[in-house]
Amino acid sequence: MPDSQALQGAATQTRHYDVDKLVLTPDDIDLSQSPLRGHIDPETYVLGAFNPGLLRLPNGNLLMMVRVAEALRQPIFDGHVHAIRWDDGRYVLDAWPLELADTADPRKFTLHGGGWKIMALTSLSWLLPVELTPDGLERVAIHYDKAVAPQNSLQCYGIEDARCSKVGDRWLMTTCSVSPERHCTTLYSSENGLDWTFEDIVLDHQNKDMLIFEGLINGEYWAQTRPLGDLYFAYPPGSEWRAGPSINLSTSKDGLYWKPYRNPGIRPHSGTVATARMGGGTPPTLTDDGWLALWHGVEPKEIVGIYRTYWSILDKDDPSQTVRTDHRPLLEANPDLTRPIDHLMYLRDVVFTTGIADGGDHYVVASGEADLACRITHIPKTLFI
């Protein structure tokens, strides 16, 4: 069992990188070109432009698939709190009596009176392709005409947190689609990395952070998944593992129909609260030593917690086996980066890594910073040896 004091200490060691910057903030988004324009009257704003999927285009440039959370400037009016919803090709507002709602979190509100947790969102998310230079550090173009927006009822509260993988000659993008029907994982495909076709639901209710491996293993597709629930069974006393959300694995013959893998994937260690909650970050990419997976661990704090990024190398032939890992955070929230947009901040201590691309002697790593902006970091490959 790992030494608990060593694990706790490792969680506080901050790394610094020579290339680390915000490349997109809410002020860079032109909402006059939003899919919502012309549908609702109240003013909206960009609550966050964050959690970007990342891929390399055929022209060598990088492309971020950015989650744009478009929110009502004043969600509360006329004694009600309002949510934006897609409804059969148009966007509408739903009004809920204020006395039924808890509005402490600016991103959502919780409704009282049910036998379980029920919430609605003050924003609706859609995906915006943003093209970057090959090093990921400068914007080349924002492709508003290629935006990915809700198109059926299972996405009526929005599309969130794209993860992009190239398998063979095809790009695959998993997203989280949100609705009262289900909170599920949906799949898109592309032949060029820019024009996306909706395929279908691939994982059902509250199975988040699905990351398709960038390559086949013994002829099959593999993916990391993260099913959520309200009940977890305890590990035996003295176990090195903590019960709770963990990163599972699934396999598929075609990338559309998935079977859970019987062995567990990456689990939270009992010796540290830094991974009391965890989930996948970047699609696993193949190295000489195995599959490199970046993932997030969450330390409880206030409403949201402290999000950090960690890494593991997984066995080439059986990704349920960890070759090596590091309990020190790879990335943490960087207040120096967000200081120029401090007036927009509504969360602290959150970095959520969602994309990776090969940069030669380093990886170009894309993250959402503070649920607000897109961050690009160059991380030396020698760090993972």
From TrEMBL:
The keyword Glycosyltransferase applies. GO terms for molecular function: glycosyltransferase activity. Gene3D superfamilies: Glycosyl hydrolase domain, family 43 (2.115.10.20). Keywords: Glycosyltransferase, Transferase. InterPro entries: Glyco_hydro_beta-prop_sf, Mannoside_phosphorylase. Belongs to the glycosyl hydrolase 130 family. This is Glycosidase.
